[in-house]
Amino acid sequence: MTAMDCSTSPFPVLDSAVRQIAREVAAAHAGSVDRDARFPQETIDALKQAQVLSAAVPVAYGGAGLTMRQLGSLCATLAAACGSSGMVLAMHTIQVACIVRHTAGNPRLEAYLRDLVKHQWLLASMTSEVGTFGDTRSSICAVEREGSGEHARFRLHKEATTGSYCAHADAILVTARRDANVPASDQVLVLVRKEDATLTQTTTWDTLGMRGTCSPGFSLQSSGPLDHVLPVPYSDISAHSMVPYSHILWAALWSGIASEAYNKAAGYVRSVARKNPGTVPPTAQALAELSVQLQALRLQWQGVADEFDALPSVEPLMSIGWALKFNRLKISASEAMPRIVHGALQIIGIMAYKNDSPLSLGRPYRDSLSASLMISNERIAAKSAALLLVHKDD
Hints:
There is one protein chain. Helix content is 51%, strand content 11%. By secondary structure, the protein is an alpha+beta fold. The strands form two sheets. It has a four-stranded antiparallel sheet with strand order 2-3-7-6, with no helix packed on it. The longest helix has 42 residues, at 234-275. The radius of gyration is 21 Å and the shape is globular.
């Protein structure tokens, strides 16, 4: 595997590759991934072969250097074929962005990015923890430091309530307190390579939807080079990268799931119309209303992505205005997707309700219900309420 040829335009090449992977690989295995709650390994292997896992790595390190809008398009395309595959790609991309944007000139981390391009390593996330009750901005576990100079190392033990596909990843980005003597909110982000970690699964992953993300609880024991502790406070990483990439890419993949449900409904309505030439099926009006909702969802995430890509620096991302923008996007998109999927089910009827039908919407329907729970909408709304007390719209 070699770095992408920079003489070609990287997005069209990757976009075409992901469309083919979605059609020929992800869609073909989506049923078994969902039924067996297994990791979509075939899809990830195909993404690696097509060098998609380095799409967010800058060209300077050998990657494609795609924009947020372009990255979101890839996630949406893949999610339309398999929601779990789209979520894995989005989560991986979020982790890559956190390293890319926060190396602070650390040569070991920069070398890691170059190796990631070469080997197409898959990155996972571990931000939850037993005892923090879903608050990812606080940690109980702490980084322990050993030695000094180039031989300095970290030790870390974390009990996570969920670990996003951690058993299948080449490395995990883990949140922890900077050391044992600081408050729970004084966090860092640690790059834990597979060879530096011992994972013990502590819970099961038998969920309603997004079953292929394989995210049970884990006990993590790890030790590695101290330079793998990102040199920027997690509060900055969260505001500058983790939150923006999470909410925009999640919204993008949710729009992909919604678009597939809409397309099935549209195909059904057209088939009814063909049977009765010259007439407009009763469900056509419902389809027209659904198309408005889908367009609104697409334009919303694309608009925020374009604004993000146009930012001259990261400073605005620390503002209340941008915090509210991301909160609104997350809540709005996570509520719009299940409405669209439900609307498509109502248009198609019993054939969408049957699991053995080519028009079945069972999997996307169940996948759609996860959106409001990924960082609870209730928690986000509470934060927005507090921010609105002191914020005035521009």
